[in-house]
Amino acid sequence: MSKSLLSLAITAAVLSGCSLIPDYQQPQAPVAAQYPQGPAYSPAEAANQAAAEQGWRQFFHDPALQQLIQTALVNNRDLRVAALNIDAYAAQYQIQRADLFPAVSANGSGSRQRTPARLSQTGEAAISSQYSATLGVSAYELDLFGRVRSLSEQALQTYFSSEEARRSTQISLVASVANAYLTWQADKELLKLTQDTLAAYEESYRLTSRSNEVGVASALDLSQARTSVENARVQLARYTRQVAQDENSLTLLLGTAIPANLPSPQPLSADLLSELPAGLPSELLQRRPDILAAEHNLKAANASIGAARAAFFPSISLTANAGTLSPDMGGLFKGGSGTWSFAPQINIPIFNAGSLRASLDYSKIQKDINVAQYEKSIQTAFQEVSDGLAARQTYNQQLQAQHDFVTANQDYYRLAERRYRIGVDSNLTFLDAQRSLFSAQQALITDRLAQLTSEVNLYKALGGGWNEQSSQKAEVSKEAPPLKLF
């Protein structure tokens, strides 16, 4: 019997190296080797450091924003769920990995039974006892064709994908907090601008009302001045509401209340962000966590094909135990009480109405789906970076033009006000100058916000936001979680 067990173990060890998982081939990136070029794009420049390796503390210069990001990384619930998902997939991998090893269990039992006299062969009541202690292996599958290892590899790649999903969640969180903060600051600046403009409109209305009382200004002039006041009040209510809603959105992202000790925010016109090197599209394949997660899902689907292929072949499972059996407790471990059993089982698929073939076809289709999803994630990343690069160049031009437009409107307003006060021009020209200046100032704040959010989104698109400091590496360990035997 020992020789049979030894030969079986050797055979299993030799065949255990067999795997039916197809060789993995990384799909070609379905994008160009360079980002788009043209009038909307700035010339490409070489970079000493990839954007993904630039820590968010170095990218965001505003101390208030840095504190908010740190708070969100500690308290945000979506990030917490993503971290717990990693632990959950690690546990699933442990469960699947454990099937590669035999499950050994020890069992002890005892029983006493009384047989009535009329049922006893001797005609007298009898009491029988039986005690046993066994150590055994139950239904251990010899992984001859790699089915269990394929399933284990599938679980491992899913675990790696969950790690990348957490990175993606953190990167998105950093960008979301930054955009929410910038929107909050922009709306506060718009609110302050509206308050100042309303005060100016109300003063103008008061002066026009006095002029109307003495017969200098007409009722039409007074009515036009009032429309400016009422329009500013509408804007005031809107921006008051938006500031409150911005605070609520930021609170949700933080996972807690906005800190009371937040440093004084810097104005939108300040140098809030660092310059970002775009690099090459090929870097996205190593930097974007959503692309890496899609590739791990593709590898998991590839491994499932190996498991589906192995299901066509025979499977062998072993059940064995050895121990001692005795009618009394005292003789349980004495000589001659030993017992053992060995029950190998082989399962050979013969007819299954095509279910195994359908399972293999399904696995191949799932792999094709994952290939398409992987390619789509690359194309999406390429499009997001290209949009960010186009926005960078055009927003610089747009902001400069808007600055010049505000300056021109300020000159127009000063001249119109002077000419109106001395009676050269009508009130209509002065009101038009007021409204034009207010609109231009609003547009300047809105354009600056759009420029900043586009830079934040470009930082996110390039995979930035994972590191806190630039000296760290944007790497995630690709090691399986340690196997826990007990």
Helical residue percent band: 55-70%
CATH homologous group name of the domain at 42-103 and 146-312 and 355-462: Outer membrane efflux proteins (OEP)
Number of helices: 10
**Strands, count:** 4
Structural class determined from secondary elements: alpha+beta
* CATH domain topology of the domain at 42-103 and 146-312 and 355-462: Outer membrane efflux proteins (OEP)
Task: Please state the average pLDDT score.
Answer: 87
- Report the C-alpha radius of gyration, rounded: 37 Å
Which strand order does the major sheet show?
A: 1-2-3-4
Q: Give unreliable regions as ranges.
A: 1-10
Q: Any idea what the CATH architecture of the domain at 42-103 and 146-312 and 355-462 is?
A: Up-down Bundle
Q: Estimate what percentage of residues fall within beta strands.
A: 5-15%
Summarize the entry for a quick read.
This protein is α+β, with helices and mostly antiparallel strands and 486 residues long. The protein contains ten helices and four strands, in the order H-H-H-H-E-E-H-H-H-H-E-E-H-H. The chain starts with a helix and ends in a 25-residue tail after the last helix.
